[in-house]
Predict the structure.
Amino acid sequence: MRTTTRRQFLRAVSCGAAVAAGGRALRGAQALAGGPGRPNIVFLLTDDQRARTFGVAGHAVIRTPHVDRLAREGVRFTHAFVTDPTCKPSRVTCLTGLYERVHGVGFSTRWRLDERQWRESYPARMRRAGYYTGFIGKFGVESYTFRGRAAAKFDFWRGHDGWAQFRPKKLRHCAAYAEATEEIITPIMGESIERFLDSCPDGKPFCLSVSFSAPHGSISGSMVPGESGKTRMTTAAHTVEDLRGHPVYGTLYRDREVEIPAETAGETERFIPKRVLPQAKRRRCYSYDYTRSTAREHHWRYYQLITGIDAVVGGLRKSLARRGLAERTVIVFASDHGLLMGEYGMGGKSLLYDLATRIPLLIYDPALPKARRGRTIDAFALSADIAPTLLSYAGLPPPAGIQGRDLRPLLTEPDRPWRDEVFLENLYVGRDNPFIEAVRTRRFKYVRYFANPGSFYNDRQVDFAGKTPVFEQLFDLRADPMEKTNLLADPKHRDVLNDLRRRCRKRSAELVALRKAYVAARASGRGPAAGVEFLSKKTVLPGRRRG
Ligand SMILES: [Ca+2]
């Protein structure tokens, strides 16, 4: 995290982006002139995909030849994390480069993304700079924000908000796909990419954002029509008529042994006490902890859905090549967060274990020298880095005061000085989740939990200065990469614990200060990036979907 002080932030905001950014603004102005050097940009975002679910990342079962090729011809970040492992706030972070505690848009706040915040998102900035912009798939923030007007934010729109299903065309909120030839959500994304590429005007670079709904539970859980609640994952999906013999969603992987986590359907209190995380609401939502049998079915479907995405990636690259665009198009691939699949006796996300916070992150840059390709980069990358990185490719400066950083310098200089820790937060307090924040270094992770406030939070409630955590964890990631042995009470780790406690408090306080500056900048009418709307307490948030 960049350590911008409140004073620096306000100065940058009050001076305006053009002055503060200096030479970068000039570069932006040159970009506005439409120079031939601006690449096309495709940002692919999957939903709930764990970091290592690729062939190239060493997964034992899942085959992903096209994503593997993207990694071989680009770079793969091995230590990429989301700042917040829950769908909506994570997506807002990808759009803005801000932590949830700063942008304020989560499932447990009454704030929503507003027009002024949107103006500083990467798609809006690129559109203003002359990019032809498109959005396909799960927008994930609209129903809480623009209420049906998100389509107007892009030149091309084939998206939806909230949860889709495996066969989405009959869903009212998925009307954008009604005319698709394909019936299954992921191939519809591929078909929509073709439509977008067909629609691109000559002489303009494009920025296309594709947000897959797979392999999220709403998709894996709707492969068999009629399954719900306790019947979910009880039928082998390949027995459904339209999936019989399907090359991806048929019997693929079903002859492979799936390694179900040892704690599946087991006791959770061993890891996080019931008084901190009661679990009842999580157990109603996530299928991985019903039984070992349903967990196995869920794993097979999850693996298939990832290979389904891989096929679309293959189609995209083939299409770009056919159109002569392959050497002019940057592709970034990431996920909105990971997932627990039975580990610690739980399913789902919103906890700060690596399995939920670590994401795949690949960058394919056709201009990257050949000697730099096919590498892995182990520097810490964050979801907040995505917006400034995409903007950098477009020749545009990042908005003032964001926490993310442009990752591009790491592609040619992977060992350059960089952040040596990541700060993680969970502010989603639905489904029994407590507030959680953590500092993760290469070797250790320190996690602290604060009581669930019982409803929406306000800024004061997420300022933890002087408050006592209700639970803490310390993990030695070298000895215990699966984060199962809490070393909090181990006297040998007393110094490490105290150091990480201090660092966590410091990072937490920095975010609170940034939030205050962010809100103050809006109140003063200054600053391009400051804005939240406060919903009245009577407002019912549309689409009580979580994910
Ligand atoms: Ca998600």
